[in-house]
Design goal:
The complex is a heterodimer.
Chain A lengths: L7 H9 L5 H19 L2 E4 L1 H16 L12 E5 L26 H8 L3 E6 L33 H8 L5 E6 L5 H7 L2 E4 L19 E6 L2 H11 L29 E5 L9 H16 L3 E5 L7 H16 L18 H12 L2 H14 L5 H24 L2 E5 L15 H6 L5 H6 L3 E8 L5 E8 L4 H12 L7 H4 L1
Parallel strand pairs in A: 2-3, 2-4, 7-8, 7-9
Antiparallel strand pairs in A: 1-3, 4-6, 5-6, 5-10, 9-11, 10-11
Chain B lengths: L3 E12 L38 H13 L3 E2 L2 E2 L2 E4 L9 E4 L6 E10 L2 E14 L3 E5 L4 E5 L6 E7 L6 H18 L11 E11 L9 E4 L4 H20 L7 E6 L4 E7 L9 E2 L6 E2 L2 H9 L5 H11 L4 H7 L3 H14 L2 H19 L10 H12 L5 H14 L3 H7 L8 H14 L1 H8 L4 H13 L6 H12 L1
Parallel strand pairs in B: 12-13
Antiparallel strand pairs in B: 1-10, 1-11, 2-6, 3-16, 4-5, 4-15, 6-7, 7-10, 8-9, 11-12, 13-14
Classes of the chains: A alpha/beta, B alpha+beta.
């Protein structure tokens, strides 16, 4: 039996039933990574020794009857490299943090470890989560397991590709403008961006604090829901995390959408959308309709301005968040310098890549005196309008449906030459972050190039259960297809 | 020369006396080995997040209420961005757009004239670390202990016209904050720092002149000197037909002069924007009411109460309430020994004398109310006389010793055995026939000499009244 083909829940059950040991599962995964990661480059750091030591520790706990209520005890997980892991390099795929070893764990890591998770390694991403292709990583690009001439998407490209390539049972990514959903779409896997405030951001190295959320990427909706159960919750270390009544997302894994009202924003099907993607999305809507949902198209207000507003707000926050990387306390410091200003200038010039520099400059500009009102303040107003637009839509609909991205995965090297075009690729995802809403991306088809297409379902504030239910119902209509199965 | 008016506004930074820092659980204690009072949060490590200390908000509210400010019941934090090694996040979390308190003021009095100095706003913010230059290694070291210590910045209106008014304002502010218990206001330790904004204009002019900002004064005296120096410098410029340049200047108290640090042209753009890691602060009516009802008695009320409740003179009450520490000792001691006038005397005379002699501030008084009360008890029980008491008080003042133990161990208790005293006096009388005959021939002074001799023999441990009585009996 090839253990790496199992879903996280399937493996968790086998471990619980003592059919498979935690060490066997960990070894199998390490072996798989050794075999194929040279082709895909999903990992920045593989924690072979730590994972094996941790595996035997977890096995002991399981043998002692502990962790019996944790469905994922002993299941290895891959972590995006912007989530702090105590004593393990957390680089954000940047030269400036190439040697950074956090002396603390992110809250999500503490939660997963308490549930018996084995961290297998840290996965690749766009530098500081800025990018849509994982090509801006200082440590080299990750390739799409469906076709290595294509990008895996980004910024959580390593996290999505590792799950697709069966180099991880599940992973944690982060989503600021689509960074969980878009690579999930490009790699044919499932990813959830939770409502802002659902998962603690403590230990997530900030890109844009008001938009960042950590979320799961896995092979199916059930795995994602069970991971979300584990990582969500109010955290006293994160003031922006919100106490909620019920974190049992697995309760929503029900194959029934009868009477559910689903709206399709007309703008999500307009110009710029690939034809094959469009027909695949409409087919998915049909499936849900046939299962009893009420589906209709409608006009969603203000989303036209989502992309400029997003890039202004996210870049503004990033310019401030990334100022701490100055070569003084930790991380990369230039070798040759003359005085304080020179350390700053050279360390930052040499330590950051172009995309990060571009966004920091945009951010510093829109916050500077004389421009603040015209750009930053105006973007906040747009953000409020977008939120209103969604609020209005959710008076009528339980969930919204549309594509995750306008096309399937582009070829390597195609996107970076035209950043504006790359930014436009975020058109269906960024407004969800601006409004702080939950959304899921799950596979709904394969185009003529053999690349997966992603379906996006958007829920109301704290409406994770609605989208999980609809996604689970849709998922029952088709089998999971991974790139490795195709090969 | 024309006649000029000085216009002064103050920005006062005050470190709050909370146990822990503004956004993490680290101690705020002053001193401590470098980089021992910090954690990943206050040193701005990647991925860490701030969590607001509720006490900081309460202290800021208390300061606002005591200075007659309006409270913004919905306020929030902003980021002030700039690079400096003592600022590990490269931004300071502060309040620009919606500060917690605004539009208040306090009354000051200079030479019998009262006026109100307006307070523009009070906002909360975090302190930065400290840079220490090592001349031996020729390098600069960073100590993050102070990083994240809570501050309030109290911004006055440009309502002051002289150094005297500024000092009066600062003294009043300091007392209010000390009475509230929100800060110890120790200038030497940097827990109260004042920046002076100063401009001059011709008397009668309506428009303000160009102002400069002066930093780095660490005592009230230095502030007075800096104001005088800057006033003169600006007048000279104007008289010479030159312009005052808007700039930040650094006061050097040793050289009694100031130096330009940076001009308005190279003033930094701090790119303030709302801090996304903290949610806006909502102050409910209940919370505000609770803080209001817990406001302690401030100086003016205390003075009045001392006069009526303890029947001590206005002058004494004003001296004792001029320091929170003095007032606290006064009240605690009175609570134990119930002799307000006696306690007041010890504070007014001996304590003041020793403070002056040792160049100490009343805030740093060491001795406890218990020990002062014990000393007063020893006197009223007739165990020691006043001369011995003064000597013992000096030890109480300097080392906070227990006077009862001290008197016992050093055998200072008065000898109240009249028979034994009479024997000693008989010997003195016998040994000083000249003084005896002087006294008998009407020289009253001679009696003083004989009392002194007796006291010397008794090593000060005798009741002078009793000595007098016995002497007069023997010499009559």
């Amino acid at each position: 039996m090839d253990l790496t083909k199992l879903t996280a829940l399937e493996l968790g059950k086998k471990i619980k039933d003592k059919e498979v040991s935690v060490i066997e599962a960990t070894q199998a995964l390490l072996e798989k990574i050794k075999q194929t990661d040279e082709d895909y480059h999903c990992y920045i750091t593989v924690m072979e020794q730590e994972a094996l030591a941790r595996a035997s520790e977890v096995q002991k706990q399981i043998d002692a009857g502990e962790l019996s209520d944790s469905p994922l005890a002993g299941v290895p997980v891959a972590i995006k490299d912007n989530i702090c892991t105590k004593g393990v390099k957390t680089t954000c795929a940047s030269k400036i943090l190439y040697n950074f070893n956090p002396p603390y764990n992110a809250t999500v890591i503490e939660k997963l470890e308490k549930a018996g998770a084995v961290i297998i390694g840290k996965v690749n991403m766009d530098e500081f989560a800025m990018g849509s292709t994982t090509e801006t990583s200082y440590f080299g690009v990750t390739k799409n397991p469906w076709n290595t001439a294509h990008v895996p998407g980004g910024s959580s490209g390593g996290a999505a590709a590792a799950v697709a390539a069966e180099e991880a049972f599940y992973s944690l990514g982060s989503d600021t403008g689509g960074s969980i959903r878009q690579p999930s779409s490009f790699c044919g896997v499932t990813g959830i961006k939770p409502t802002y405030g659902t998962v603690s951001r403590y230990g997530l190295v900030a890109y844009a604090s008001s938009l960042d959320q950590i979320g799961p990427i896995a092979r199916n909706v059930s795995d994602c829901a069970v991971v979300l159960d584990l990582i969500s919750g109010h955290d006293t270390k994160d003031s922006t995390s919100v106490p909620r009544d019920n974190y049992q997302y697995t309760e929503a894994l029900i194959d029934d959408v009868r009477g559910m009202k689903i709206g399709i924003p007309k703008g999500y099907l307009g110009a710029g959308l690939d034809k094959e993607v469009k027909s695949s999305i409409l087919a998915a809507a049909k499936v849900l309709e046939e299962k009893g949902a009420v589906v209709e198209e409608f006009d969603l207000d203000a989303v036209d301005y989502a992309i400029p507003a997003y890039y202004v707000i996210a870049s503004a926050e990033a310019s401030s968040n990334l100022s701490r990387y100055d070569g003084i306390k930790y991380g990369y410091r230039t070798e040759d310098f003359d005085g304080l200003a020179d350390v700053y200038k050279k360390s930052r010039s040499e330590g950051f890549g172009n995309e990060v520099k571009r966004r920091m400059m945009i951010g510093a500009f829109v916050l500077s005196s004389g421009y603040y009102d015209a750009y930053y303040n105006k973007s906040l107003k747009v953000k409020a309008l977008i939120k209103e637009g969604f609020d209005k839509a959710f008076e009528k609909y339980d969930i919204l449906l549309g594509p995750t991205a306008p096309s399937t995965a582009p070829k390597l090297g195609e996107s970076l030459s035209d950043p504006l075009k790359m930014y436009l690729g975020d058109i269906y995802t960024v407004s969800v972050n601006l409004a702080g809403l939950p959304a899921i991306s799950l596979p709904c088809g394969i185009d003529s190039k053999g690349l997966p297409i992603g379906l996006q379902l958007i829920g109301k504030h704290f409406g994770e259960k609605d989208i999980i239910r609809a996604a689970f119902s849709f998922e029952q209509s088709r089998d999971y297809k991974g790139p490795v199965n195709n090969a | 020369m024309k006649s000029y008016e000085t216009v002064i506004g103050l920005e006062v930074h005050v470190e709050l006396a909370t146990q822990t820092k503004i956004f993490c659980g680290c101690t705020t204690q002053f001193g401590g080995e470098p980089n021992t009072h910090c954690c990943p949060v206050c040193t701005g490590m990647p991925g860490t997040l701030p969590v607001l200390n509720k006490r900081v908000v309460e202290f800021a509210m208390a300061a606002g209420l005591a200075t007659n400010c309006k409270i913004n019941q919905k306020c929030k934090f902003d980021r002030k961005n700039y690079f400096y090694p003592d600022l590990p996040k490269a931004y300071q979390v502060s309040q620009l757009y919606l500060p917690i308190c605004h539009d208040g003021g306090i009354e000051i009095e200079v030479n019998g004239v009262k006026k109100v100095v307006g307070i523009h706003e009070i906002h909360m913010e975090e302190d930065a670390g400290k840079l220490i230059h090592d001349p031996w290694e020729d390098c600069t070291l960073v100590d993050y202990n102070r990083c994240g210590v809570p501050l309030i910045e109290i911004v006055s209106e440009p309502d002051m016209r002289s150094a005297e008014e500024v000092i009066s304002y600062l003294e009043k502010l300091k007392l209010i904050l000390q009475y509230l218990g929100v800060s110890d206001c120790k200038m030497q330790e940097g827990s109260l720092r004042a920046d002076i904004n100063l401009s001059i204009r011709e008397v009668g002019a309506e428009k303000f002149g160009t102002r400069t900002e002066m930093k780095n004064m660490n005592s009230f005296k230095a502030i007075a000197r800096a104001i005088e120096g800057e006033r003169k410098r600006q007048i000279e410029l104007i008289e010479d037909g030159k312009q005052v340049v808007q700039e930040t200047r650094r006061w050097d108290d040793n050289k009694d002069t100031s130096f330009a640090m940076r001009s308005k042209e190279d003033a930094q753009d701090y790119r303030y924007f709302p801090e996304p890691d903290l949610v806006p602060i909502e102050i409910s009516d209940e919370w505000l009411h609770d803080i209001r009802s817990r406001q302690p008695e401030l100086r003016d009320e205390k003075m009045l109460r001392y006069e009526t409740e303890y029947d001590i003179p206005e002058y004494d009450a004003s001296i004792i309430t001029s320091s929170k520490r003095l007032a606290d000792i006064f009240e605690e001691t009175v609570a134990i020994c119930e002799k307000p006038k006696e306690v007041s005397n010890w504070l007014m005379v001996e304590t003041m004398r020793l403070l002056k002699e040792t160049e100490m501030e009343p805030e740093n008084i060491l001795f406890s109310a218990q020990n002062l009360a014990r000393l007063i008890g020893l006197i009223s029980d007739g165990k020691i006389n006043r001369t011995v008491a003064k000597e013992v008080f000096e030890r109480v003042f300097k080392e906070n010793i227990d006077p009862e133990d001290y008197v016992k161990v050093n055998g200072l208790t008065m000898v109240n055995d009249e028979g034994a005293l009479r024997t000693v006096i008989e010997n003195i009388v016998a040994g000083n026939p000249a003084s005896v005959s002087d006294y008998r021939s009407g020289k009253e002074k001679a009696l003083g000499f004989l009392v002194g001799q007796t006291m010397k023999e008794m090593k000060g441990k005798a009741d002078p009244g009793l000595i007098n009585k016995i002497l007069k009996e023997l010499l009559s």
